[in-house]
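Kindly inspect this one:
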Amino acid sequence: MLCDAEQGTPLAIMDSREITSLRTAAATAIAAKHLARPDSTTLTICGCGHQARYQLAALSHIVSFRTVFAFDQSEDQISRFAAAVKDDLDISVTPVNDLRAALRLSDICVTCTPSEKAIVDADDVAPGTFIAAVGADNSSKQELTPQLMAKGKIVCDVLEQCMVMGDLHHALDAGVVTQSHVFAELGEIVAGKKPGRQSPEELTIFDSTGMALQDVAAVVLAFEKAEQRGSGARLNFAG
């Protein structure tokens, strides 16, 4: 629910799942813009559920992909994902069973799974890869090994939050990194306070745990566009 900041009256009610899915994927795309190699052409999506479609849609605005690999424990899930993005985005997806082999060929990796055990290790990715770790949004979830986190240039969405959840949390607990190992928050890079990618060989990691302020920004933008277009259903309440 979006409310007027001065009066507290409700302005709009929206589907929070849709908003969160969109802003999560948009954050990955922004991170890729600053942290992926400009010549990136190959992507591996690890986890082909609901969020995967949004991730690919957002990234397609930043990167012109020649190859998209899809990995999931469920072959049916991969098939549904491949059919959906072919229909919606006209992007062909190549299913893979060997995640490591796909990652070694990839410029970008997005992990968006509910895994509670690390699925990508330091030796699984090639130098210069950009990894967006999206799935670990609470302290019990994990997608990247602590050793991979220690090897990469870490950028967080919210540092304090990533320290208690997400993949940074596990790396800190393992003692292989400290807070000082984190290079920046994404906002610092977008604002020009710190640089993004600094070399073609740099392994960059975006630890994405979810930022509530991004939901607010997305809701405001959606509300403003709805007002301009006259879309949505208007509800009038009697006093």
